[in-house]
Amino acid sequence: MSFEQLIKELYDQLSTGQRKVAEYLLQNIEKAAFSTAVQIGREADVSETTVIRFAYALGFSGFSEMQAAIQQHVLQNSSTRTADSMSNTGEEANIFAKVIERDTIILRQTLSQLNQQDLWKAVEWLIEADQVLVVGYRASYAAVHWFSFMLSLIRPNVSLIPFNGETEEKLVTLTDKSVVLVTSFPRYTKETIKVVEASKQRGARIIAATDRVLSPVGRLSDLVFTTDINIESGHNSIASVISLLNLLLAGIEARDQSNTRARMKQLEKLYSNWGIFVE
Length: 279
Hints:
Helices cover 61% and strands 8% of the residues. It is an alpha/beta fold. The longest helix is centred in the first third of the chain and has 25 residues. It has a five-stranded parallel beta sheet with strand order 2-1-3-4-5, with helices on both faces.
């Protein structure tokens, strides 16, 4: 059994302090391989005694034996990585690096073409809106689902148009004080365009995240933010879309700190009362 598997199996039996040690070791395994119990305790924010008791809890005779197991674990992993890199050649060896490198290039391009004045205008619209409707279909749905959830944590009256149904019911409540945030990337869907057109008829402001200003949705929107999607791996990766939407969240939290903090405080109280989270 590997060191990681050992921790996973015994994790539920550990004390709160010992769990801190476990999490620190798994996140910093190579550094910990040559650290003392005092150093590990300091980094994990526990006492040296807790680190030693953690070693006992895993079944080791003491800290030294546990550290030897960690060193062996690191050595085996290093050997495996070296063997893998030698056995993989050509495109297969570089596919993961290519995908990440392409994402990085796209993010840099997105940053270089961002209009900060428009970005802050979008932030103000999202803060002042009586309601925010979030729209995105097919591959874009994952990004807008995440965005609508995160936005609902820091402001009220946020709605997401689901895949099926409720579109008309969501649109009928829009006013000239509402904001619709829409994502649309190739292949563009007709339904997205219909929703944007109907929203404009209701007087709502439209903020779009799309691949180009003159995309079907871009032409209809009041504010347009563009980014490419990564097709390096053979499918459309939306990492850059989520990063773009995250800028809006960061702007709202910076510009409307008092309200966002008050709302988060209320939510945390509910979470605690209902026992929503494990820890």
